[in-house]
Amino acid sequence: xxxxxxxxxxxxxxxxxxxxxxxxxxxxxxxxxxxxxxxxxxxxxxxxxxxxxxxxxxxxxxxxxxxxxxxxxxxxxxxxxxxxxxxxxxxxxxxxxxxxxxxxxxxxxxxxxxxxxxxxxxxxxxxxxxxxxxxxxxxxxxxxxxxxxxxxxxxxxxxxxxxxxxxxxxxxxxxxxxxxxxxxxxxxxxxxxxxxxxxxx
Length: 201
Description:
Elements: H1 8-24, H2 27-39, H3 41-55, H4 60-87, H5 92-95, H6 115-128, H7 132-151, H8 157-189
């Protein structure tokens, strides 16, 4: 299959500037960014668990909202994945043949938009509906995740920017829709075996 979008024509020079900067940066910084890029999504999962744990002490409605956060993130990932298949943009590290911190993904592992950025941004938005403090922490972490994906060389800047946009829009829509039904869901779930998920013992 051929790529439908030539990303290098959009911001290829900005991408090479970032990759060159990464190549000249101290080893400890590159190691930290590479580690965050590879494993940082686990932090977002932990933040959602923490949001749910705290929400149980606030009330059933807040707990239902917290339980919906992973659903919003999965929806954002799904939309992002569909866009990847539609656009089919080659990875910049494959098109531009540059040396990157992270190994270049295999052909057919499309670049646009960034899954990592979408997941991180969706988590941040969903958590804002649960706890503004956790949402703020997740937002900073999401920006760091998006930047790291360009730094390690696997995405163009526009990949991560659109990934963030997808995550924000899908998660916002999902959480706003959920908010309309949260009280009803909380009432129904409180009468089932799932009640322990909604209230602290």
